[in-house]
Amino acid sequence: MHRRDRRIALSVSAALLAAPLLTACGSDAHPGAAAVVGGERIEVSTLQAQVKDVRAAQAASPQAAQLLGTSGDLNRRKLNGLIFDRVVSKVAEDNGVTATRAETQATRAAFVRQSGGEDRLAAALLQEQGVAPDQIDDVVRRNVLMNKIAAKLGITETPEGQKKLTDVFTAASKDLDIDVNPRFGAWDDAQVQLAAAASPWLRQISQDPGAVEAGA
């Protein structure tokens, strides 16, 4: 990956407020769904499985007490990421962008080298983004897609470039007609995130693996 490409890497920020898991979506028409995106359900069981994996990794960490004590927003963060992944997939499909297995593996290998090893990469993503080890490939694939989308659209490191990209994602978000269980908040198409999120999902980042946002 060229240095310039790394400078325009884009990410998801998922610092969301805590909320309990539910057994129904925002409408009685979607029982058991945490959200419905483009007519496809994100089941509560899917969300619970992701949260369970992260909790297990946190419990096994030397920083277990700290991690478990500071991630009360994990349910929201993981749901935000699950929804955002679907928005990314739509934008990628609309623009003819794909992330091959080889590209994902090469990007992950680069992150591993930069972080000083697989264990350090996993620890950084777990601590900073609430990502379990078995979820890292999803984070890397998202990063690959975001970079390729930015390149395809000619996004530059300017406010105008960032606005252009945000507009594209907002349009895709609206097209997906995202319906979120109200206990998690409402989806904000303009910000492309759960409305309760504390910071915007889209910002410039470095390729320091510790800075790779997961949309976790």
What is the typical, i.e. mean, pLDDT? 80
Oligomer state equals single chain
Name the structural class. mainly alpha
First-residue to last-residue Cα separation: 24 Å
Q: What is the strand tally? A: 5
Helix coverage percent: 40-55%
Instruction: Record the strand order, biggest sheet.
Output: 2-1-3
* Secondary structure tally, helices: 8
* Structural domain count: 1
Q: Provide the succession of SSEs.
A: HEEHHHHHHHEEE
Strand content: 5-15%
Bulk shape: globular
State the major sheet: 3 strands, antiparallel
Low-pLDDT regions: 1-29, 197-201, 203-216
Rg (C-alpha, Å): 17 Å
Architecture overview:
Strand 4 and strand 5 form a beta hairpin. Mean pLDDT is 80; it is low at 1-29, 197-201 and 203-216. The protein has one domain (3-211). Strands 2-1-3 form a 3-stranded antiparallel sheet. A two-stranded antiparallel ribbon has the order 4-5. By secondary structure, the protein is mainly alpha-helical. The protein has 8 helices and 5 strands; from the N terminus they run αββαααααααβββ.
